[in-house]
Amino acid sequence: MAIREHGVSAVTVGDLLDPIKHNLQIPHYQRPYSWEPATALQLVDDILDSRADPDRSDIPYVLGAVILHEDGDGGRLDVVDGQQRLLTLRMILGILDGHDLLSTSAVGANAVSRVWTALGRRLGLLEPPDAHDLAAFIRDRCEVVRVVTDDVDEAFRVFDSQNYRGKALAPHDLLKAHHLREMREETPHMKAAVVQAWESAKDEDLDRLFSTYLYRIARWSRGDGAPGFTTQDIGMFKGISGTSSTLTPAHRYHLAAQAALPLLSAWGASGLSDRELGRCKFQLDAPLGSGKPFFDMVAFMLEELKHLVRQGFPADLAPYCHFDLSALADADVLDERAARSRYRYVSELYLAALLYYTNRFGEADLEQARPQLFAWAYALRTEMLRVQYRSVDNRGRGEGSSSAFGLLRHANSGRVVNQLPPAGKPYSDGHEAGLVEVLKEWSAR
């Protein structure tokens, strides 16, 4: 049915947060509460400024849109968009009303505690009459645009792409929402497990996985430039929906292959490692089924990148690694080292090539291929005084010379990397002298 009649309306904050009038729930697929204290305090200041503005005395202060999904279960309304604002408003009103810390069992206890403490300090400066007046202003004079639909797909189609402070959602956030919708037939327990696994990853690691590696590999392997991963590019990771009415023969082939993948577990008993099984399941040149396979792929690729950083930078190459190898060993995270920022782009190019190589050919001939891929990527650092992303993008897509990605995409053997061009002449005497010697030593073998 989609958005119902009279489903879009302006309501006061007090009306919306009244549990008798609106049975609001935070669905399992939503991320935990994540606002920083500064954002919550800015909301307070905005409300105070509006209340004090004489030109707005007769005009309600609108706090944006809230999108709700009516699931038909006892009138429950799932908050699809607006949960950060609503939870913050609940905390503000709770403090003004003299309540203790709200229950945080399902909404990000640490973040809630930090914001609650900051709000308590800020609002504690108000005298009791003023606190009462502010609470009344929020409940009666602050409004939100309420959008109610009984179709969860429609709810996400009108999903507001910006939060209250105007920060656009990252592309991987939209991919998460898309693939959770594709899991509509899965159990709530399975959906909750998927969300928990996703939220356990650092947001910068998720962004890096898609924007720095998966997106670039997909573009470069086709000979295209990769100017930057945006919300306009998420279609390449939406996968194939088994419920689509327009499945092509190619779609059916890939879905059939995915359905047969459980047989790989039996192969594992014959000597295939978990990493080899993952590479078989999540081929970068083949589309995935949408829904849970997407989340499984993300979990695997995050771990695969960490393995490849360790594997790709042995002791002789460690000085040229942009990532902090000691931090990776201790905390299992990809921390960057500012002191080696000059190797950032070539490190990323090298790791993307390693990821693509091992995804296609596993460990076969990797010991011989790794120096070739390193030299191909890092030669930019010796040939140019300043390496910018445009130069890396050109090399990745093969402008002016062979691309490792283009060669690997069409090869039947990893030995194809032997066709990569040798490093060019160094920029000048003394420029990256140590790295030049490493590349010379390999070329002499």
Give a nutshell description of this structure:
This protein is of the alpha/beta class.
What do you see in this structure?
Strands 1-5-3-4-2 form a five-stranded mixed β-sheet. The chain is 51% helix and 8% strand. It has 19 helices and five strands. Residues 104-108 and 160-166 have low confidence and may be disordered. The protein is of the alpha/beta class and 445 residues long. It has two domains: 3-168, no CATH class; 203-236 and 303-443, no CATH class. Residues 191-420 form the DUF7834 domain. Residues 13-180 form the GmrSD restriction endonucleases N-terminal domain. This is DUF262 domain-containing protein.
Helix content: 40-55%
The count of DSSP E runs of length 2 or more, i.e. the number of strands, is 5
Beginning-to-end CA distance, first to last residue: 69 Å
Structural class call reads alpha/beta
Mean pLDDT: 82
Q: What kind of sheet is the major sheet?
A: 5 strands, mixed
Taken in chain order, the helices and strands follow as EHEHEEHHHEHHHHHHHHHHHHHH
Number of domains: 2
Helices, by number, come to: 19
